[in-house]
Amino acid sequence: MKPKVIIYKKVESTILEYVKEACDVFYFEHLDADNMASFYEALKDAKGLFGTGLKVDAALLEKAPNLKIVSNVSVGYDNLDVPALTHRGVMATNTPDVLNETVADTMIGLMLATARRIPELDHMVKAGKWTAHMTPAQFGVDVHHKTLGIIGMGRIGAAIAKRAHFGFGMNILYHNRSRNVEVENTYHATYCSLDELCQEADFICLMVPLSPQTTKLIGEREFRLMKKTAIFVNGSRGTTVDEEALVLALQEGEILAAGLDVFVQEPVDPQHPLLSMPNVVTLPHIGSATLETRQAMARFAAENFVTGIQGNRPPALVNPEVI
Ligand SMILES: NC(=O)C1=CN([C@@H]2O[C@H](COP(=O)(O)OP(=O)(O)OC[C@H]3O[C@@H](n4cnc5c(N)ncnc54)[C@H](OP(=O)(O)O)[C@@H]3O)[C@@H](O)[C@H]2O)C=CC1
Ligand SMILES: O=CC(=O)O
């Protein structure tokens, strides 16, 4: 008999068929109030859980006594209580690397759009308000040859640094808990403390995973350290920033502008003060969202999933202690 598993996200038919060859699949294209009861019923038998973003903690694990693997279709796995999964002997997997270049493109796009005020000027042109030559009131600021500070110089951070160094001639600072000698050698990146980075960078790009240590890593103190001309770009998770402090920093001119792909609450409340600021460029958490990359992520997650279900070590296992 095939093991019973749950897919709780819409996937392409090729992925569904691939998983179905090895598993008996309960398929939920999405989870909502109408199907939660069926989902919890399916959890009782499920050996595997495949999808994006569901909070999997000790309380959910109580409802899933047979679970062996949770496969996240994302590189971030802050939705998973990894210690609780490990304690129960459940494998957790994610999708590193296949999205690095795409997310880096998005982050560079956010930097350019914010610095050169692209969405604001696009609205102006389409609203028929381009009636005279542009004056400094519409000018942006340069990106090329400025200093970029990357907080979280990991896989995606390095892909951003590559673009910034080779494409834009930027000077690169970075901050991690440990040094990344490869980026220092390849992209001439300089390691520094968080405070030094905040003080010296023209563009500050946040790319850390969400963890207890990175929750509200950037708050009032850090915004005050930044240059008044600094542009802050966040592609990590909304909660790595104190969002109220960000609003204040923008309102009080502590920084010039912000580009945001992530928010504390997603989807963001349409009344959120950040959305009415012309110097804030927003995206709907879409860093990895190209057709090609989302397909690659789903394939990788499915490979992790089936490999783990079959009792082998998945290629991207987050908690190898369970093996
Ligand atoms: N917006 C979007 O659509 C996307 C967002 N993401 C987000 O980006 C994150 C990063 O992904 P990825 O680059 O693959 O991850 P990596 O693990 O490769 O890189 C994360 C980096 O953050 C550093 N870091 C971790 N904790 C801290 C800390 N407390 N203080 C300072 N630096 C820290 C790590 O270095 P060290 O351990 O030395 O501190 C590491 O270099 C994901 O976890 C996810 O949240 C990812 C994909 C798409
Ligand atoms: O936010 C996306 C991810 O892959 O993590």
Automatic annotation (TrEMBL):
Record domain D-isomer specific 2-hydroxyacid dehydrogenase NAD-binding: where: 108-287
Keyword vocabulary terms for this entry: Oxidoreductase
PANTHER family: 2-HYDROXYACID DEHYDROGENASE-RELATED (PTHR10996), GLYOXYLATE_HYDROXYPYRUVATE REDUCTASE B (PTHR10996:SF283)
Listed EC numbers: 1.1.1.79, 1.1.1.81
Name of this chain's protein: Bifunctional glyoxylate/hydroxypyruvate reductase B
Domain D-isomer specific 2-hydroxyacid dehydrogenase catalytic: 5-319
Molecular-function GO terms, alphabetical: glyoxylate reductase (NADPH) activity; hydroxypyruvate reductase [NAD(P)H] activity
